[in-house]
Design goal:
This protein has three helices and seven strands; from the N terminus they run βββββββααα. The protein has 149 residues and is α+β, with helices and mostly antiparallel strands. The chain has one domain. α1 packs antiparallel against α2 and α2 runs antiparallel to α3.
């Protein structure tokens, strides 16, 4: 398996804050780099402040997740949060995975996007037992959300 090297790009423009988003961005530190996020409790949405560069050496590709991108992180049903909360699968894994499901980079297949999710969880030091629950769940249940090629 090739090693992924996700990195944060140079801070870009500050996206306008939506009225229901926390106005203050907080820094999330991780083995992959730091990312500034704001969270909307009412919408259960995380928003990134700066562009995020994801370098995927497994597939020989990189792409930028644009500043202002919004995600729910991991789409874990609320009933399962006692076992795995959305933020416990890292910040980078969903930031690398979710935009691909939305069609950000047409070079990826669904299987490749899911492998990127798994690889990013490894880099983010997500415990193995969580990865072994999350990856098959994405493979099994993610199909209806796929908007890529």
């Amino acid at each position: 398996m090739s090693r992924l090297e996700p990195r944060i790009s140079v801070p870009g423009r500050m996206p306008p804050a939506a009225p229901d988003l926390d106005l203050e961005y907080k820094q999330c530190r991780s083995p992959a780099g730091d990312v500034w996020v704001s969270y909307s409790v009412s919408r259960n949405i995380w928003r990134i402040r700066d562009d995020v560069l994801i370098v995927d050496t497994r597939h020989g590709r990189d792409f930028v997740v644009p500043a202002g991108y919004e995600t729910d992180l991991s789409s874990v049903p609320r009933l399962a949060w006692w076992l795995i909360a959305p933020f416990e699968l890292s910040v980078f894994a969903p930031l690398g995975h979710d935009p691909l499901y939305g069609g950000l980079d047409a070079r990826y297949t669904r299987a490749e996007a899911d492998l990127l999710f798994l690889d990013l969880m490894v880099i983010e030091l997500v415990p193995r037992w969580r990865r072994e629950l999350a990856y098959p769940a994405v493979r099994l249940r993610g199909g209806p959300r796929w908007r890529g090629r």
